[in-house]
Each structure stands twice: as C-alpha cells, then as structure tokens.
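User: For my dataset I need records formatted as: sequence, then structure tokens, nothing else. Please produce one.
Assistant:
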Amino acid sequence: MSQPPLDGWDVLEQAQELARRGVEFAIATVVWRQGPSSGRLGSRALVTADGDMIGWIGGACAEPSVLREARQAILDREPRLLLLGTPEQFGGSIPEGMTVVPISCQSEGALQVYVEPVVTSPHLVVVGRSPMAGTLLELAKTLDWRAELVDAADFLERDVDRRSIVVVATQGHGDEEVVEHAARAQPAYLGLVASRKRGATLLGYLAERGVPQPLLDRVRVPVGLDLGPTPHREIAVAVLAELVQLRAQGALTPGDAVPPATAEPSATAEPSSAARAAEAIDPVCGMTVAADRTSRPFEHAGVTYYFCCPACRDAFEKDPTSYLGEDARC
C-alpha cells in the first residue's frame, strides 16, 4: 500500500538526511495561496536534481511547474519566488524579481511558492598518507567540507560516488590501482598529484589494461593551481585553491555516466538526466508537462501529445485541429 506524502516538518527531517548524504536539492514552500487550491500555506516539498519530489506542494497543475523550476534553481544556485496561475489573475501588478509560471488549473486557484536551492558541503576523499595529503584534509575541514583520508591499500570503488571529489596523493605507492578504482566510480572530480610525465605514463598503462578512455580523460594531472616549485604542504594549498575555484564555477557536479566497456552509447546505458526530464507543451492550455506516460499521452497524425489533466486530453481528442493551428487543417 502506498504511503501518504510527507508534509510540514517531516519534510524538513528528510532535508537533513539528504544534506547528510550530500544530495543536492531545493526546498519549495507555499507562501501564499488563492483558493480554491489543494496547496496550503506552509506546504513544503523537496526536489532533487534527478527530479524526485518528496512532500506535497499542490495538485497536478502546480507540481510539474514547481518540479521544473526547482531543478533549474539547483543548476543556477539561485532562489526564486514563483507565482503559479493564469497571467490574467495577476495582471500587471507583478513585483520585480518574481517569476510568473502560467498554469491552467480547472480549480482557478493560484499559488506563490518560494524555491530555495540547498548546496551541500562537498565530499572530499584524499587517498594517501603523505604530509601533503594530511594538510589537504585539514584545510578542507576548515571550510566545513566532508573530508576523509584513506590509505591506498584500503581504497575501493564503493568508497565514493558521482558527487565525490577524489584526490590521489599516494606519491607512487599504488597509484595505478587507486586511479583505476576511482575512475570507474566516475566521481565529479578526480585529480592525481604527480608530474605531467608520470601522469601520462600511468594513464597509458591503465588504457592498456582496458580502462575506457572517457574515464581516463576525466583524470586531472597535474592537480592544483600552478604555483611553480613548492613544498609538499603548499601543494595542498594549490589543490584546494583549484577545487574552490571549480566549485564556484559550478564545475564540481556529476556528469553523464560513461558506459563501463565503451565510450559509445548503448541500448543498455543509463539515460542521462536530460533524457529522463523530457518535457512537452500541453496543446490545449499551454502548460509544460512531462513527456511520459504520467501526462496522458494521445497520438494524432503520427505525433504524440501530452496533457496536464483529463479535461485537456478529452478536449483535444474531440477536436485536435482547433488546437493545432492552420497547418493541421491542410
């Protein structure tokens, strides 16, 4: 039996759990409503970057719009205040900075929703026991990053995920095995503390072992900002400086997964986030909806259309040409 959606403070407890796991998400909160609307003041929902929604924000009209805007807020790292309803409901009195999201809801209700992205602390895994590795660990902790130090012999692929940052600082002790394990985990960042020559040799060796080239292309070597010849501990400063710079640029985010055996897409490869998030425009009311089976697909003249509610689908099914313009009558 399905469980009822979480609401109110229970949603915030789930937010703490997502933050603990390092999952990026946005919190959407209803701050104003115009009835009739299924959303209530204080209703909350969490939206992850993958499009999962936890909680309740409103009915079938509001949910896809909030979902879309929340995922964009995670990418932009910018909060936004949404006004959900028909443009006629708000007229020309929209305060600057608010975003009007047209929805065609049969209840004629409207919502104002505040969407705030939650950027979690990076997960840094430093592999090695050199003075540089220890310094990097301590520096990262001063920034409140989730940082841990792992011996080369103990490092496994399962120790990291695609949101992790991995810096291999084993100084030649098991570099090959560690980089191979880390590369196959496809973290958001993988750097090797080594000279350019040493890095080229190591990556060439792993290529001969059958590690896919797209995975090896993600390995940054040498790692860190180029400060010229520096002592080991100052290398740690250069590495962290580069990581901070990349994070500020939004470059420390998971990329599309690479199939394990080949760089070419395959029929069994996991679809990218973009593929999972395909959208379409409801031809009746103009709402943006998910282009999947949840949006009541209907095929007409070889084209599949998607709808926000049964009423829109029924109206289109009865007279498709009235919603498709003159070209559909030719």
